[in-house]
Amino acid sequence: MSGRKVKLNNILMAVAIIAIFVYIFVQFYSVTHIKLETVEAEKSITFESVSATAVVVRDEHTLQSPEGVVTVPCVGDGDKVNAGGNVAMTFSDTKKATDYSKYAEIQKEIAYYEKLETQTIAQTSSVESINSEVESKLNSYIRAMNNNDINALQETGNSINDSLLRRQMLIGEDVDLMKIIQSLNKELEKYSASSTPNDYVSSETSGVFSSYTDGYENVIPYDKAAEATVSDIEKALEDTSKKKESEKNSLGKLITSYVWYFECVLDVEEVKGLKDNQKVTVALKNSDDTTINAEILSGADPVPGQTKTALILRCNDMNGKLASLRREDIEIRIRSYEGIKLPASALHVNADKKGVYALVSSQVNFRETEVIYSDDDWVIVKYEPDNPKGIRLHDQIITQGKELWDGKVYT
Asked: Could you tell me the pTM of the whole model?
């Protein structure tokens, strides 16, 4: 019985020794056989920023529809309205209002095709450039669809149609725009009888019109906006997180001041890089191409002992899209850095000079550079096109490799 135990122990010991040797071999192989990995050097812009969820406060007033009629706006979102100016048309019933809307839409289509007819093919250099144009516009259309931005969807859809028609004409396909226009004019005649409204709704004051209302137009009173406290903003953010029905008889709103505010609550530590009266850029996180110029009104210099601060940003840009903002995830951009973005692992020191190794035709070349911004895992390094020893665009920068040195040949 003891002989069997000794034999079993010997087998277990042999297995353990083999496992140790396998582990040592794997570790040695992983150290001596490092896979070469590279990234392409491309220009990039990075922002030092603070993220927040903000509530938008404006001087805005809802406009009411008269009783017993159907209204159709006669100004577009973001349009300026003078005092006494018309903001909507009234119709006796829904059918007449719908017919008028169709009439107005057909008029827009006719104007669109008439404008397109005056354009020449020479305005577009190649099919490839139009293909690239369409791809970019499709991406914009998808973003607008994800953001439920109706105005952007319509505008981008028309723009895509424009590019596709120009592509057809460029490659020689027969596109009879006059035939399209004539067909639309015939359709327009069907609704001409409904093209005249019964009356108009006018505005008592001047301002910027928006057809969008959300019921939170007074979530923080405008005359109290500049002095809003942490608790005021937190309550407004909680309220606006819930969907609310706007008034049934509301036909839109009028924004009577170009000055409006982003208001958010931040931990005191988060505003250390900010100052009151500082100019910043605000980017909307759900819309990559929307940025807004702003000024920090207050909250960047909190009172000692505070843990949270009410950061209030003052803005004076206004258009149809901005008029519909309410509760937004934003990025407050403090400063920007433009250069080559690389993993931190790409940095090395060679002859007391900081730089990176680039793989050029299987040979390692050392490229001198300077770090202008860094994060935990990556860096932005200076791009100097006139420096013969510096990084060049499209260099294959080595991020992982074994025993790198300037001039080494990798095979």
From this structure: 0.70
